[in-house]
Each structure stands twice: as structure tokens, then as C-alpha cells.
Amino acid sequence: MRELEYPFNNEYILKNSKKIKRALLEQDDARIKKKVAVLGGSTTHDIVRVLELFLLAQGIEPEFYESEYGQYFQDAMFGNAQLDAFGPDVIYIHTSNRNITEYPKPGEDREKVEAMLEGQYRHFAMMWDKLEEAYHCPVIQNNFEYPFYRLLGNQDGADISGRTRFLTRLNERFYQYGETHGNFYINDINYMSSAYGLDKWSDSFYWHMYKYCLCMQAIPEFAYNLSNIIKAIFGKNKKAFVLDLDNTLWGGVVGDDGAENLEIGQETSMGQVYAEFQSYIKAHKDIGIMLNINSKNEEENALAGLNHPEGILKPDDFILIKANWEPKSKNMGEIAAELNVLPESLVFVDDNPAEREIVRRQIPGAAVPEIDRPEHYIQVLDRSGFFEVTRLSEDDRKRSDMYQANLMREKQQSSFADYGEYLESLEMKGTIRPFESMYMARIAQLTNKSNQFNLTTKRYTQGEIEQAADSPDYITLYGKLEDKFGDNGVVSVIIGHKKGSVLHIDLWIMSCRVLKRDMEYAMMDCLVEECRKAGIAEIIGYYYPTAKNRMVENFYELQGFTKTEGDEKGNTVWEFKIPETYENKNKYIEIS
Questions:
Q1: Which of 583, 435, 433, 444 is nearest to 521 (CA)?
Q2: What confidence score (pLDDT) does residue 401 get?
Q3: Residue 288 carries which DSSP code?
Q4: Checking DSSP bridges between strand 538-543 and strand 428-433, what pairing results, if any?
Q5: For burial by CB atoms within 10 Å, which of 198, 352, 527, 570 has the most?
Q6: Which ranges in 234-352 belong to alpha helices (H)?
């Protein structure tokens, strides 16, 4: 919905939230349902009202629990039957510097300040530990915005007793906690208040009149930022940029002006703007975002522009370069297919409003940000939160290389007449083991990102993944795959719970980039082996259809299961009785 895309009109959203919600609910979108508990240190009603809109627009249908005013600590520490019954999927703690109970006095000695800092930190850390123990779900915590006055002036951020420095140090303690707790996330209101304008953000009228820790007008931006964290936790991030060239990555039209006359580099102020934008785009490779080109151009001209000596982005920074005269919407569909991702995973960046509108209409779900002047490109893309990072894994950092290697595999495949010979030529090596702590974050990430190969459509938080791994009632397996072209990382996950001598599969997912390379068979072989060790005689599998996972509706049949149940909605149940002699199905992967 355009009204909820950044940059949006805060006042319009606040005044028309009911109308916007009705319009969102009328859309026939397949949303995941999540329970969000909001524990407030100040008034949260309007935050929840607007947060719901952004989550609906991002594919999440939320149900909310709101604590009573100022009862965030009591709800967390002393139990609440209503919260227990609610069973949150994510907990958000809405506190601010208004909830700091004690600040250093000017000139306070270091020992007293340290004790005070520890006391304020422990107030929160005890609460986070308690929530993790009770609910095993992600916790999102605000950090602290700076105070709206500085008693010590510029020294307030430097002196050990300054409030600004006290809050800075307390924020750092919060970040350190997050480094060691995988299910803990920071909502950075310190940055937001700075970007919005601290004087406006902290207008004390709204605190004293309504007990809001921020001004009413800032609530939509606040809620949008928070929604980006929640949608990232539950796998709703985008995965790739699809970029125009002329007047998007450089100034000018390469086919008319010639590559040598493009505006890019340090010679002009506008050339510097485009160079900075290219640097910003290229940096996304370091967080696993795939870069692609979709330009109406001759390929020769496009490559000449990308090879400009002052350009930051070069042809080998891109996975796919579509430079032709086809409709850009057609190229978008082809890019999604060749990357083996859903079209809704793409972010299309083009300076031409007509092209944006065509793609917006023809490729539903793809993000099409409204960019205007080149000086604002970075701000619009960055604030849109398309690629919100919650945890940055090694697999994320390598993703672009993985997809480049995948294209090389596909090129090699075309040179083989026999598919088995092709698989053998890949020299594949796999690792399949029960869940291990070093891969918990990646496993949780994969469970929330996989759509096309997700047999039960279930999603897991990292806390739930860790619980399953620690429980004797579960069998868990993850699979990694590498070949002569590179390491694909963790690509498959199985979670099953035991009932007597039967294992019920709760989750079986796999990254589609390794589909049909025998990894699914290798996982089955290892699952049978683990079941035998545990005295399991029978495996029950479940398939729940969605608009996205039709490709695996017959997956269990291919593994040797027998269908025992099915309904009119396409839900099916499959049974596999483990034989006395089981012949491994994997032929081409060396498993360790």
C-alpha cells in the first residue's frame, strides 16, 4: 500500500488509520499470524494502532497484548496470567529515558556512578532473562534517546556524571547483552530521535499531557522502524536489488552521451552524489544482498558505463545484468526465476516514475521505492528498511558469491547430456548433523526465509530452535553443502518430535538453490539413521499447501512415503515405515 511506503505522510496515517486498516484487510494477501506482546513504560495505544498497519502491509497479521500503563517490569518479573495465556511470538519492551529511575548528580564520583549504572542495567537484564526463561521468544528492547537538555552543556557527554554520557554507557551495556543473546534485538530510538529531531521528538507536552515518551507526530516513523525488526525476525526481508542504470547509478544516458561523458566521480558535485550512491549500493554485498541490473540499453553500452574508471560498481559486482529493450517487468520476472527467489524478494530502483508504476502493477509484492532527486536516493532506500539486519551470519556475507557460483553450476550443467554425470562433476561434499550452537542463528533464519521448499509452513524463532535441539523428545538435523564452485552453507533443516516409536516431522525445509542435487535424499538417509538410533520405527510427514510451496506437494512420495490422509484443501499426511534394510538414496554427495 503506497500510503505506508517510505517516505510517508505521518499526519495522514494517524488520521486515517481505520480506513487504511480496512483497505489492507480487504486485500487477499497470505499473511502469517503472530502474537506481539507490548510491555510499556509509557503510553502505547497509538503505537500499537499504527504498528498494526505496517505489519499488515509487510505480510504479518498481528494480535496484540498490551500491558497496563507503566507495568512493563511487573508483567515481566512477577507473572501475568493473561500474558501467559496469550503466548507471545515476540515481546516488545517500550521504554525510554523517562524510565530511568536514577541519574548521577553533577560531580558524582566514579564509584557511585558505576554502581548506579550497574543498578539500572540489572533492572533490565533481569527482566530480559526472565522473559527468555518464560516465553523463549524474541525480545525487542528500545535503547535510550539522549536527554532533551544538557545540564553540563557540552561536557554532559564527556563528564562521568553527565546524563548524556550515562545514557550512552547504558546503551552500550544493552548492546553487549545482545552480543551474547541471540534472541534479543535493539530498537534504536536513539538514532530515530536524532534523525527526526530531538527537540521535536522529546516535546515534553506529550509526556505531561498523555504520558507519551515521544511526540504524537513521530509515532508512524517509530512504528515503521519497529515493524522492520519484526518482519525481519519472521523472514519478510527482501533479498536483492534490481537497479536501473541511466540517471540512477550515474548521471546521463550512456547510449546518447557515451560512457566517457557520464556524470560519476569526483569532478562535479553531482558526480560525487552518484559515486556515493554506488558505494552505498555496493556495501550491501557485505550483508548478503544480491545486486542485479535491469536497464533499457544495449548490453555493450551498459557494460561500458559500468566499466567507467570513476565508477564504484563494476560488472562483476552484479549477479545478473539485463540490458535490453524488453519490458522491465519481463526482466524482473526473469531475474526472480534465474535467482530462484520469489518476485516479492526484489527491490526495483529506477529514477523513471513510469517504469516504476509498470513494475509495481506487473510484479505484485516487489518493492518499488519512490525516489526523486539523486541526493535523496540513499535516505529513501536506507529508511525503507528492506534489508533490516537482525543477525549477520557467515552465509549472509557469502550469499552473493554463492549465487554467482550457482550460475557457474548452471552453465556447466548445460554442457552435460547426462544429469548424473553433471552431479558427479560437482564433487559435492555435505555435512549433516544434529543442531549445533554455532549454526542456531542461520537455522532460525532459514526456517523463516524458506517459502518454496517448506512442507509444513512453520516458522521458528532461535529460542524455539535451541529448545528443540536441547530436548530428548526431538530429532534435529541441519545440512551443509559445498562443491568445487563454492560453499552453499546451511541449506536444509529437519525438526521432528517423537511419540513412542513414531517420529512426526514438524519442519522440513531446504534452500531452493540446491534443489535436485541429491541433498534432499542425503537428508532422508541421515534422518533414517538417526531414527534407528532412537528406536523409531515409523516416520510421519505432513504437507500443508500454500501459494508458494506447490513445488514440493509430491516430495514425500519421491522419498518413498505412502500417503495416508488428504483433504479438500490439499493437506496431506504421509507415512514411512523404516525397513530392516534401507538402501541410501543419495548417490552423488560425500557426507560427513
A1: 583
A2: 76
A3: T
A4: unpaired
A5: 527
A6: 254-257, 269-283, 299-306, 328-339
Kindly state the cell numbers that stand for 215: 511526540
CA nearest to 73, candidates 130, 117, 115 = 130
456 three-state secondary structure: coil
Q: What are phi and psi of 140, to 5 degrees?
A: -110, 130
> Beta 346-349 vs 240-243: how paired, if at all?
parallel
Report the alpha-carbon distance of residue 573 to residue 466 in Å, rounded: 27
Place of cell 524510565: 99
E-assigned strand segments in 111-183: 139-142
Q: Give every residue of the chain whose pLDDT is below 70, as ranges.
A: 28, 450-452
Residue 242: closest CA among 310, 335, 160: 335
pLDDT at 199: 97
Q: What pLDDT does residue 212 have?
A: 96
Secondary-structure breakdown of the chain: helix, strand, coil percentages, each rounded to the nearest 5 = 45, 20, 35
User: Around Cβ 480, how many Cβ atoms within 10 Å?
Assistant: 20
- Apex CA 74: angle with CA 68 and CA 75, to 5°? 65
Alpha carbon distance 132, 118 (integer Å): 21
Residue that is written with C-alpha cell 559445498 in the block? 482
Nine cell digits for residue 481: 553443502
Is the pTM higher than 0.70? The answer reads: yes
Q: Which helix (H) or strand (E) is 353 found in, with range?
A: helix 353-362
Determine whether 583 is exposed, middle or buried from the number of CB atoms within 10 Å of its CB (0-12, 13-18, 19+). exposed
What is the C-alpha separation between 347 and 242, in angstroms, rounded? Answer: 6
What Å distances lie between residue 432 and 332, 482, 506, 520, 521, CA to CA? 35, 12, 18, 11, 12
Cell match 499531557: residue? Answer: 209
Q: What are phi and psi of 545, to 5 degrees?
A: -70, 145
What ranges in 434-550 are assigned the alpha helix state H?
A: 440-449, 462-470, 519-533
Distance CA 343, CA 341 (A): 6
Cα–Cα distance for residue pair 355/327, rounded to 1 Å: 9
- Residue 187 is placed in which grid cell? 530498537
Task: Record the cell numbers describing residue 555, joined without a space.
Answer: 516430495
Alpha carbon distance 400, 389 (integer Å): 16
At residue 232, the 3 state secondary structure works out as helix
Quote the DSSP letter at residue 418. Answer: S
d(CA 502, CA 473): 11
Residues 6+ apart with CB under 8 A from 352: 244, 247
As a whole number of angstroms, the distance between CA 549 and CA 457 comes to 8
Q: What's residue 452's pLDDT?
A: 66
16: helix, strand or coil: coil
CA dist 334 to 173, 217, 339, 361, Å? Answer: 47, 42, 8, 16
C-alpha cell at 333: 520476472
What pLDDT is attached to residue 308?
A: 96
pLDDT of residue 140: 98
Residue 266 backbone class (left: φ over 0; alpha: ψ -120 to 50; beta: rest): alpha
Query: CA–CA separation, 491 vs 486, rounded Å?
Result: 13
